[in-house]
Design brief:
- By secondary structure, the protein is an alpha/beta fold.
- The protein has 28 helices and 11 strands.
- A 6-stranded mixed β-sheet has the order 6-7-8-9-10-11, with helices on both faces. A 5-stranded parallel β-sheet has the order 2-3-4-1-5, sandwiched between helices.
- α6 crosses α8.
- About 4% of the residues have low confidence.
Length: 638
């Protein structure tokens, strides 16, 4: 077999000049965990990933039921690379579901945050080409079918999704009812059949988003709850989380991974994010039927935060033994890493370089390891800065993008299906947006101070997110802001009540931030009781639009990760907002921020009023005992 001829140096240099192979920001986040994997040197820190795979196998073979593993490593040494490797290996091999937890918008209610993460993670594509929720739903449906037809063929997930996505709503409702009835006979001790109902609804693409929203602990609009035969509120209890994890354990291996614990955020009890997560891990571990819990962190977090907690917590966070420490790169692993990146680059362009490491030399790369323990990120940054092909002895001019802008774009492209219902996450992003505008005048308001301490005694409130203090036309203003994405009910009413209580909260006007959609329509009672008075006394209804909030969420994420993950200063981020705000809807250029500060229109928005049309109740749906649909499903693929 003959090797391909070497490409001309001019073609290779032109390709390198047009696109730096290492231009991608050398930071692995959730996008790489769930999406395309970074080129991975599988031998680098294989001891850590192998420990996880070994634990999964030992659980699979019945040696024990569960364990927890802690991995420690300094910034940039590849913690998230390891997670990405584990996730992609599980996706390739099949037989396991993966949950990746990084963001908890409210540390005071971390269980709800984890329930959201659970919903979002299981909404990612698994090993069968459908979402992990749909894999679980298929396993449940198969058990239900086989309880009636023991010799029925196993139904493929893709076939089930295709069939239910093609059916009309009424037909699926009958089918889901029949499957639940059959499944309950196999699980006489089933605590909450509605959870099974919601999981089965994920098989219908048109209803999956609503089902996952409900499973994530968010409220459904009443009309949609009625259509799916679900109560509008699932609840945000640990029992719900436990039942979902128990169901997974019945059919699949389970890996739960916690990452990005370095945040300095603290809850009302004075505990840091890492300590709050450690407490959750302990409770999960104690109640988990089967699975592996993986927690990755910097060594200082383990020593100074986790180890300082009561003895029962560290032992539950790392039941496998002492934390596994990641190693720095050596000459061999550096050469292998760069080789991988360049091979992918050249192969995609059908080019054959003069040697595998061009435009670097092996000596250059090995010399990097002689420096002080280079982490993966530093090696990739060096390659990015030094990838300069020669053309007649003259290095090309390679335009370099602002690294803050690159990080912002990366965060902007992150996927999170639940974020538009997360009041705390949205409010935090909007709050940060205003914090970047202190001492500036926007829409005639000179912003002086932003505070989350909105109560009379200086405490935080669960519904009124923050206040903006400033001056408008020489007068003091105090604008109360509440993000209220609740579908309806008590929580929405509680938030609206605060917005019109100017005296208690020291407001000159209130601002409601809420999406305008069928799912967010407001009942006539709440409309007349709160919305009309809010507008009449100079308040504002600012519509929450995805294109306006996403940039605020992205820049807030960059700011949170600025030191550990990106290595930015706060000044660099603020400069980016000032320079590129008009391009990316940041700072004073963000339409939502301007709308909150703008003069009140005194116009009551009519199109947010809920329709008066009668909705069918859950009890009006017949629960046919006929098994025609199950019989039909049992022969799918025959």
């Amino acid at each position: 077999m003959t090797s391909s001829p070497i490409s001309s140096i001019e073609d290779i240099n032109a390709a390198l000049q047009n696109h730096n192979p290492f231009a991608l920001l050398p930071f692995v986040g959730s996008q790489e965990v769930w999406g395309k994997e970074f080129p991975d040197v599988t031998t680098l820190n294989a001891h850590a990933s192998d420990a996880v795979f070994q634990a999964i196998n030992q659980i699979r073979t019945g040696q024990y039921q569960k364990t927890s593993i802690a991995i420690t490593a300094e910034s940039g040494t590849g913690k998230t690379h390891i997670i990405s490797r584990i996730r992609h290996r599980l996706q390739t091999d099949g037989g396991a579901l993966f949950i990746y937890a990084t963001e908890f918008s409210d540390l005071n209610n971390i269980k709800h945050g984890f329930q959201r993460t659970l919903g979002d993670s299981l909404g990612k594509i698994g090993s069968q080409g459908v979402t992990q929720w749909q894999e679980l739903a298929s396993a449940i449906a198969n058990q239900a079918v086989k309880s009636i037809h023991p010799h029925a063929p196993t139904l493929l997930s893709k076939d089930l999704v295709q069939k239910l996505s093609r059916n009309e709503l009424s037909k699926n409702r009958t089918l889901v009812n029949q499957l639940i009835e059959a499944f309950r006979k196999t699980k006489p001790n089933l605590k909450n059949p509605d959870i099974i109902r919601a999981i089965l609804w994920t098989l219908a693409d048109s209803e999956a988003l609503y089902a996952v929203k409900w499973l994530s602990g968010d409220e459904l609009a009443q009309y949609k709850a009625n259509e799916l035969c679900l109560p509008s509120i699932n609840g945000q209890s640990f029992d719900v989380i436990q039942q979902i994890l128990d169901l997974i354990s019945d059919y699949y291996q389970l890996v739960i991974c916690f990452d990005e614990l370095e945040s300095v955020e603290i809850n009302r009890g004075g505990f840091t994010k890492s300590q709050v997560v450690a407490g959750l891990v302990k409770e999960l571990f104690e109640n988990l039927s089967r699975g592996v819990i993986l927690t990755v962190m910097m060594p200082a977090i383990w020593i100074n935060k986790i180890k300082q907690l009561p003895a029962g917590v560290p032992s539950k966070v790392s039941a496998y033994g002492n934390p596994i420490d990641l190693k720095y790169m050596n000459g061999d692993s550096i050469v292998e890493l760069v080789d991988l990146w360049l091979t992918e680059f050249y192969s995609a362009r059908s080019l054959v370089p003069p040697h595998r490491l061009y435009p670097f030399t092996e000596t250059q790369l090995r010399d990097l390891s002689s420096e002080e323990k280079p982490p993966v990120r530093k090696v990739l940054q060096w390659c990015r800065d030094n990838c300069k092909p020669t053309d007649g002895g003259k290095p090309p001019v390679v335009p370099k993008e602002d690294p803050v802008e690159e990080a912002f774009k990366k965060e902007l492209n992150q996927e999170n299906s639940n974020y538009l219902d997360d009041n705390y996450l949205l409010a935090d992003a909007i709050l940060f947006g205003f914090q970047t505008l202190i001492n500036k005048t926007v829409e005639g308001v000179e912003i002086e101070e932003i505070t989350e301490k909105v109560k009379q005694l200086g405490g935080k409130d669960d519904y009124l997110n923050f206040k903006i203090f400033g001056k408008e036309d020489g007068k003091n203003v105090s604008i109360g802001v509440a993000v209220l994405q609740y579908a309806s009910g008590r929580a929405l009413g509680a938030g609206l009540r605060r917005l019109i209580d100017y005296k208690t909260f020291g407001l000159t006007r209130g601002c409601l931030i809420r999406s305008k959609s069928k799912d967010k329509n407001i009942s006539s009672h709440l409309y007349k009781t709160y919305i009309e008075p809010l507008i009449a006394q100079g308040g504002e209804f600012a519509e929450l639009k995805e294109e306006e909030i996403r940039p605020l969420l992205a820049i807030r994420s960059v700011h949170k990760k600025r030191e550990i993950d990106y290595g930015f200063t706060e000044e660099e981020i603020l400069n980016f907002i000032t320079e590129k705000g008009a391009v990316y809807q940041l700072g004073a250029s963000n339409t939502l921020l301007k709308e909150i500060l703008s003069d009140p229109s005194y116009q009551v928005p009519k199109h947010v009023l809920e329709s008066n049309a009668e909705l069918p109740s859950v009890s009006s749906y017949s629960e046919s005992s006929e098994l025609a649909e199950i019989t039909e499903l049992a022969v799918v693929g025959d």
